[in-house]
């Protein structure tokens, strides 16, 4: 809280000095609606307001990940060649390897192709025993159709979209387990760009962590945080909760942290709005006291009338506040809320004014002299408020309605 509680009434001479400074044309209006935005903030504020702008996004570069993809786009492999490799896989001509799946089904393949495509499969083939001129390797835990799609990709780098969509999670595991980076990139890309759903996000998250796909894992966590209520009711979440309670705890902490950051961000936005409104009020006060506005201004200035538009956003509310202040019968600091607010605005201006001897705002010099008598605690509060209002001025920058001379 940067405002000040003033317990003793101001001298009548100060009040009369304020009244004599203005030519006021009385108009009817709702005081509470007009000046509610001029409240001095009461919440505690952070000192870290001058947060630097983030650096610009980096220019497009070809990293180790997308460089091979760029080369692949430059290569031209005739469709006939791909069809030949597909035919070799489907017919199994001259096959010397049998791949045994979970259902005990057999997929014929060629050891030389498997060894070149996957160093992991090559090691398996070297260690496997030959029986009747055929080597046998097992790929358990994966449906037969998924193994077929995987082996076909090793031959021709081709896949059917329907098969990929159906078995993308199985193919992600196979590509990681048997070291097929190109297939792994395809699976990750498809999941990141449209194939990630509320139902499968938990399964994908666990696979992404096991398969060393950090970006996909981060996208899954963000999706959980964004729609936690729906995802926490899915079967995937319930299964994860039973099998991996540590991951559940981690996700819950991420959700809580995200909510806290959101609340803090909203709080800072609201505080920023308050300080910007105070800055606009300071500009409007100087405008009224120096140039005059529609229904209020210096006695040596001609009033413009209520039909003339004013470019200062806070001017209308401040006019209403000044009109109330000049006619209020209580007018005791601490007795009338609106008058107290006017005293605070006048003191805030005085603390920001660099030319009190020439300033046309009433009581500016009086408040300057009164500062010498304040306690260090009150002085620190006012200095903090002034610094926040000055920061708000910097936020407005060249788009401010007026570059005030006293700031």
UniProtKB/TrEMBL annotation:
PROSITE patterns given in the database record: BTB, ZF_TAZ
InterPro entries associated with the record: BT1/2/3/4/5, BTB/POZ_dom, SKP1/BTB/POZ_sf, TAZ_dom_sf, Znf_TAZ
Domain BTB: 95-163
A GO molecular-function descriptor: zinc ion binding
GO biological process: regulation of DNA-templated transcription; response to hormone; response to hydrogen peroxide; response to salicylic acid
Biochemical pathway: Protein modification; protein ubiquitination
Classification via Gene3D superfamilies: 1.25.40.420, Potassium Channel Kv1.1, Chain A, TAZ domain
TAZ-type domain mapped to chain residues: 269-367
Keywords: Metal-binding, Ubl conjugation pathway, Zinc, Zinc-finger
Highest rank taxon of the organism: Eukaryota
Zinc among keywords: yes
Protein name, per record: BTB domain-containing protein
Organism phylogeny: Eukaryota, Viridiplantae, Streptophyta, Embryophyta, Tracheophyta
């Amino acid at each position: 809280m940067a405002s000040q509680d003033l317990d003793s009434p101001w001298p009548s001479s100060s009040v009369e000095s304020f009244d004599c400074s203005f030519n006021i044309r009385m108009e009817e209006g709702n005081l509470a609606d007009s000046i509610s935005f001029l409240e001095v903030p009461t919440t505690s504020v952070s000192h870290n307001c001058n947060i630097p702008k983030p650096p610009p996004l980096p220019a497009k570069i070809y990293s180790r990940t997308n460089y091979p993809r760029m080369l692949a786009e430059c290569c031209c492999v005739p469709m006939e060649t791909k069809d030949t490799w597909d035919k070799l896989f489907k017919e199994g001509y001259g096959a010397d390897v049998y791949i045994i799946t979970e259902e005990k089904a057999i997929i014929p393949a060629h050891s030389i192709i498997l060894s070149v495509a996957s160093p992991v499969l090559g090691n398996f083939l070297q260690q496997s025993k030959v029986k009747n001129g055929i080597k046998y390797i097992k790929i358990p835990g994966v449906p037969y159709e998924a193994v077929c799609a995987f082996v076909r990709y090793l031959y021709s780098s081709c896949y059917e979209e329907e098969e990929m969509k159906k078995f993308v999670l199985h193919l992600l595991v196979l590509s990681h387990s048997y070291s097929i980076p190109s297939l792994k990139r395809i699976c990750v890309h498809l999941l990141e760009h449209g194939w990630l759903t509320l139902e499968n996000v938990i399964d994908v998250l666990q696979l992404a962590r096991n398969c060393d796909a950090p970006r996909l894992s981060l996208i899954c966590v963000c999706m959980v945080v964004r729609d936690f209520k729906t995802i926490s009711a899915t079967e995937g979440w319930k299964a994860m909760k039973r099998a991996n309670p540590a991951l559940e705890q981690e996700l819950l902490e991420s959700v809580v942290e995200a909510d806290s950051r959101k609340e803090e961000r909203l709080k800072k936005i609201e505080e920023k709005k308050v300080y910007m409104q105070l800055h606009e009020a300071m500009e409007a006060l100087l405008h009224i006291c120096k140039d005059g506005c529609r229904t209020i201004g210096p006695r040596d200035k001609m009033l413009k009338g209520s039909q003339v538009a004013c470019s200062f956003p806070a001017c209308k509310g401040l006019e209403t506040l000044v009109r109330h202040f000049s006619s209020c019968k209580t007018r005791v600091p601490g007795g009338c809320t609106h008058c107290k607010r006017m005293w605070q605005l006048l003191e805030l201006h005085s603390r920001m004014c660099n030319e009190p001897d020439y300033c046309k705002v009433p009581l500016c010099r009086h408040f300057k002299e009164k500062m010498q008598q304040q306690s260090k605690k009150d002085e620190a509060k006012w200095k903090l408020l002034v610094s926040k209002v000055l920061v708000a001025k910097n936020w407005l920058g060249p788009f401010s309605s007026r570059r005030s001379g006293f700031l």
